[in-house]
Each structure stands twice: as structure tokens, then as C-alpha cells.
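A.,

Following up on our hallway conversation. C-alpha cells first:
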């Protein structure tokens, strides 16, 4: 049994795929219709605009038998994200819609959000839980900015809570390096006779207690390079934590760049605003402040795991 689903927006047709992201940006006064082409009049079909189920009518058209809903302004009182679900037999289709509203409606929504925020922030989550679109989010499988910042805050807070323990048990190891004799610890270096023979011009006579005693005389080895063991924090445990900190810093920096680009973008000239832009005007300042605070924490923690790093601020 075959069928096809088509979304119509102001008369323009868009095929709806079964395994693809069906995403569209519409205005609140756009007229929508959905058609389901089937080859069996007894096929079971249903359409849901969120929880509302419009009535389907079956008609015979040039394409065949078609279940269709009348063309109407179904989202005349909506703002933000909305989902349309289409069920045909045992298969389901999902359509994601980003509904833009008139600026008059946006101003009213802005006043409502500010009023709710002044009383209790949780009221906003309850009232707008089904219609909010995360600020700066892109359509697809990527996480929204709020989730990214919250995860970064949780990660850095956990490390800072255990900072004293991490400092007391800092993971290090000793690795052989070549460095001047004066810079190395005399008890932690290995002077190879071959190095002495290859650097005879660096040897000079010295009073008693010199570096080398040869044929009854004392000599100093000067700046000759020797093999020494040096402590390094380049171990697997620190690499894992440093990788997480670098990833967080890069992700937050990209988020800050995206917020700056959206803030500098000109307002739409068609008289409609998106819910994303509304939330950006209300929440971007707080999100930017949180991003910079977490970035400062990642720099502090990175120095803890690799003290030799220097950051350009």
C-alpha cells in the first residue's frame, strides 16, 4: 500500500518525507493544508496540530484518492515552535514549524514574559514549555545553547568542587630530557662520558668541588647538555580532562560568536518576528555573561592540569 503526504503553505506544495527533517518557517496568518494521497479508501489516516485534530475529507482528484484538511490559518494564535503529526496506516510523519508573529503580537509576548520573569522564572517554563524555541538553536540534531551552557557549568563546577583533591593527587610522570647541566638537578641527571668527549671545548679548569675529576684535576662542565628526568603532567588522565575543557571553551566561544552575529543582524522588514529573536533580546545578555564566566573557569582549570600553559586574553 503506497501513499504520499504533501504540505501546502499559501498554495505552495512541499513533499513531506518519512525519514527527513520536515522543517518550515511560516507566518501566523499563513494558510496551510495537508493532503494524503492513498490508493485504498479504507486507509486509516489522522492529522494532529499539537493536540488538535482537524477533520479529514476524502475526495477523488487527479492524483487519485486524497485525504485533505481545508486550507485555513491554523496557527493564527501561535508563536514559536509547533509540531504537526501525520499518521497513515502504520507510519507517522512529523512536521516542525517555526511560527513568526506580527510585531504587535511580539511586543505583547515580550511584556508577558517580562512580567512572568519578575514574579518567578519557573512560571515561564510552565507556560511556554510547548511553544519556546531555544535561542540560537539550529534546526537539526544539535543541542540548543541552554543545554550546552548548562552542561558546561555542571562539568566545571564538578571539577572546582574537587579542586583541592585534584591538586593533592595531581597526576605527573618523569620523562628524560636534554637540558644544560646548570639547569638540571645534580641528583636527577645522567652525565654520559660520550657527551663529555663530544664537548671537550666546554670543559674548563675549576677549583676543588668541580663537576669532573680527571688525572688529579677538577673541571667544570659548563653549559654542556645532559640527560635529566623532568616532571610533566602530560598523562592520560590529564589529557582527558584537558580535552573536555578545550572542547567546552571552543563550543562556548562559537556560541558567543553566534549570539553576536544574531544580535547584529537587522530586524526583519516584513513586519514579522520570530520567537527566537524575541528570546534573544530578553536572554542574550545573561547567556553571554554565563559563557564568559565558564570560559574563565576552564582557563583556571586548564592551568591546574598543565601549569606551563599561557593564555592570551
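Then the amino acids I'd put at each of the 313 positions:
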Amino acid at each position: 500500500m503506497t501513499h504520499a503526504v504533501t504540505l501546502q503553505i499559501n498554495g505552495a506544495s512541499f513533499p513531506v518525507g518519512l525519514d527527513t527533517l520536515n522543517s518550515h518557517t511560516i507566518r501566523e496568518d499563513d494558510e496551510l493544508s495537508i493532503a494524503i494521497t492513498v490508493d485504498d479508501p479504507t486507509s486509516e489516516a489522522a492529522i494532529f496540530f499539537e493536540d488538535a485534530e482537524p477533520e479529514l475529507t476524502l475526495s477523488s482528484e487527479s492524483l487519485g484518492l486524497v485525504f485533505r484538511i481545508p486550507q485555513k490559518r491554523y496557527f493564527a494564535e501561535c508563536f514559536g515552535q509547533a509540531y504537526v503529526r501525520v499518521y497513515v496506516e502504520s507510519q507517522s510523519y512529523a512536521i516542525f514549524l517555526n511560527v513568526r508573529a506580527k510585531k504587535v503580537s511580539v511586543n505583547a509576548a515580550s511584556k508577558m514574559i517580562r512580567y512572568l520573569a519578575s514574579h518567578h522564572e519557573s512560571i515561564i517554563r510552565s507556560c511556554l514549555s510547548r511553544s519556546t524555541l531555544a535561542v540560537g538553536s539550529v534546526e537539526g540534531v544539535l543541542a540548543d545553547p541552554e543545554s550546552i551552557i548548562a552542561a558546561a557549568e555542571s562539568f566545571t563546577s564538578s571539577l572546582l568542587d574537587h579542586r583541592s583533591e585534584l591538586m593533592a593527587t595531581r597526576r605527573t610522570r618523569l620523562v628524560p630530557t636534554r637540558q644544560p647541566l646548570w639547569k638540571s638537578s645534580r641528583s636527577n641527571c645522567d652525565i654520559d662520558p660520550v657527551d663529555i668527549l663530544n664537548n671537550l671545548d666546554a670543559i674548563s679548569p675549576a677549583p676543588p668541588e668541580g663537576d669532573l675529576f680527571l688525572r688529579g684535576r677538577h673541571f667544570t662542565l659548563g653549559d654542556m647538555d645532559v640527560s635529566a628526568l623532568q616532571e610533566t603532567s602530560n598523562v592520560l588522565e590529564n589529557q582527558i580532562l584537558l580535552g573536555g575543557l578545550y572542547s567546552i571553551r571552543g563550543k562556548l566561544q562559537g556560541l558567543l560568536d553566534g549570539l553576536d552575529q544574531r544580535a547584529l543582524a537587522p530586524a526583519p522588514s516584513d513586519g514579522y518576528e520570530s520567537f527566537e529573536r524575541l528570546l534573544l533580546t530578553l536572554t542574550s545578555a545573561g547567556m553571554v555573561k554565563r559563557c564568559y564566566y565558564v570560559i574563565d573557569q576552564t582557563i583556571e582549570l586548564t592551568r591546574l592540569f598543565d601549569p606551563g600553559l599561557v593564555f592570551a586574553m
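The chain has three domains: 3-101, 145-168+233-305, 174-231. Curious whether your intuition agrees with the design.

B.
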